[in-house]
Design goal:
With about 110 residues, this protein is α+β, with helices and mostly antiparallel strands. Helix content is about 45%, strand content about 35%. It contains four helices and four strands, in the order αβαββααβ.
Length: about 110
């Protein structure tokens, strides 16, 4: 029964990555924005996981991995005022206008 409950909860989870490319010379500003934003997102009720990282080989590349309890929690995140403030601030420091999102399907362990 526990495995079925685990699978059911995994199926409803929204998981994604965001790839962010800073403008050259703006790496520290993007890192600082992501640091503060990480704290805010982790405090959201429906957030399960949020981690930002930077590439070891390309200082302009940042990757974020995110998980939300379900689609409603993800929508709440998208519509949160902090999200709009973060994206507006970020847009001044990144190429391509922001981040590239990749929606993921979690694979359960067998």
């Amino acid at each position: 029964m526990q495995d079925q409950e685990k699978n059911a909860s995994t199926e409803s989870v929204v998981a994604l990555t965001a790839e962010i490319r800073s403008l050259p010379g703006h790496e520290s500003r993007v890192a600082n924005l992501l640091s503060g934003y990480t704290t805010q997102v982790r405090a959201e009720e429906g957030n399960r996981f949020f981690a930002a990282s930077s590439s070891q080989t390309d200082p302009t590349l940042f990757l974020v991995y995110e998980e939300y309890r379900d689609a409603a929690a993800f929508q709440a995140h998208l519509h949160a005022s902090e999200n709009a403030v973060f994206n507006a601030a970020l847009s001044e420091h990144v190429s391509d206008g922001g981040s590239v999102l990749t929606m993921l399907n979690l694979i359960d362990a067998s």
